[in-house]
Amino acid sequence: MPHRWKPNVTVAAVIEREGRFLLVEETTTDGLKLNNPAGHLDPGESPQDACAREVLEETAHDFMPEALIGVYLNRFIKTRTGDDLTYMRFAFAGRLGTHHAWRALDSGIVRTVWLSLDEIRACPERHRSPLMLRCIEDYLAGQRHPLALVHTDASVLQVGAPAWGGPR
Length: 168
Known about the structure:
Layout: E1 8-14, E2 16-17, E3 20-28, E4 31-35, E5 38-40, H1 47-59, E6 61-77, E7 84-99, E8 109-116, H2 117-121, H3 130-140, H4 154-157
Parallel strand pairs: 1-7
Antiparallel strand pairs: 1-5, 2-3, 3-4, 3-8, 6-7
């Protein structure tokens, strides 16, 4: 059987407070870029749990997803290697919780910043992904879907469980 194409599944949080959005400034091969707190879905976790984990790792804040903003596909060609990648992003809105000042930020994260929509729009060259602004704009447009739309079967959460070969 030929190699089957699969997108990279990621999660992102849109966190707004008083008209400003919590973003991370991170080191990339293309320089310092801005992004929503975001990252890859890991084995054994739901997208909601992955989002809470990524926010904690990248901002040192607890986060509770409360709504799905949307599911997005983006194709990206790495400038350094020419790798052709597709990302499927689950973006969540939610409640920011306790800040754990003692926590170190994830590798590559330089700092967190709170920016207004105008400030974000003013620097598109600093956006790590075009999905960052799109997710924020969808959030501002009122897109909120129940978390129940993202169902994670219990088999995903079972460590070391054998793969089920049935219909997907």
